Amino acid sequence: MKLKSKVPNRVVNRRVNRFGRWYVVQWFKFDDKGYADIDESKLTKSDINKLKAKFDVVEEDLKDLGYKELQIKYADKTGKSAVGMKKKDILKELEG
């Protein structure tokens, strides 16, 4: 998931409970242009909802991705390998 913040270089902190005490730790940081790429597999449903409420979610443009990245996205979405498929066929499957 790609997020956009209005403030570049913003640091997002998170409270975690360790050994019975609450600590504030750095969660992630936005880059110079105000974008951050977050791995959704490591987040809970409530974390995702909080991030979507606080920041803007940016959709990736599939046409800008390379062939290898498209193959990986195709395999994640369908569960099948994209080896031997043409780029336009992969794009058609992912968009449709």
Structural write-up:
The structure is a single chain. This protein is an alpha+beta fold. It folds into two domains: 57 residues, no CATH class; 34 residues, no CATH class. The chain is built from three helices and five strands, in the order ββββαβαα. The strands form two sheets. Strands 4-1-5 form a three-stranded antiparallel beta sheet, with helices on one face. A two-stranded antiparallel sheet has the order 2-3. A hairpin with a 2-residue loop joins strand 2 and strand 3. Helix 2 crosses helix 3. The chain is elongated, with a radius of gyration of 17 Å. The two termini are 20 Å apart. The relative contact order is 0.16. The model has no long low-confidence stretch (mean pLDDT 89).
